[in-house]
């Protein structure tokens, strides 16, 4: 197949479990770029989390953050688009959830991913790996401030309940006006209605003049499913969830076995 763009998830996919970019994976990405192929990270992370590994991966162009909610250039910060979740939608969702589940905690990602507004108590149960932010820098505000403004990504968390249980509860509410997903992180992620990694990737490809048939996408989690279905060739990691395997055209080795690199090497011949 013709390949013009490689779209890759990061955690559990491109990065190994340390998490880092291995020498083999970096060599494969460089070889693709040398052929003129765009290599685009498509992630639930924000730019702060991308910067931590950008040099190791050679990322300096377009990136899709917040599960496709916005596209940003990593070299100059230029934004192509940003799809925000309205404040009224956030408030309605939070109120409905709090009526059925006590002790929930919420956070809002704003301002091109640079601002993280966390409810009082959120930082106490967070780790650096969760948002690639030191919890000591998160601060804490009353819930009303978290819910007061539009958000690129709205985060729902509980000190004890598993994200899958929270996800099921959100789905059971019967509310509309947003998209909800899981990325493997210890919280539920909510984006604007219709926003997925697939929609973000489609908008970026339109901007670049690239047909979906010429896109290869890699992923491992629920938030990658739509992207793998949309791409001309979707690749699931070996230890991906069943829904991810069902969405993909093939399965590669795990992230600790350079699964992404193996496919790129084969495609480049």
From TrEMBL:
Keywords, sorted A to Z: Hydrolase
PROSITE patterns: COF_2
Gene3D superfamilies, alphabetized: 3.30.1240.10, HAD superfamily/HAD-like
Short name of one Pfam family: Hydrolase_3
Domain of life: Bacteria
Alphabetical list of CDD domains matching this protein: HAD_Pase
Any one of the GO CC terms: cytosol
InterPro entries, alphabetized: Cof, HAD-like_sf, HAD-SF_hydro_IIB, HAD_sf
GO molecular function, one term: phosphatase activity
Protein's name according to its UniProt entry: HAD family hydrolase
Source organism of the structure: Microbacterium maritypicum
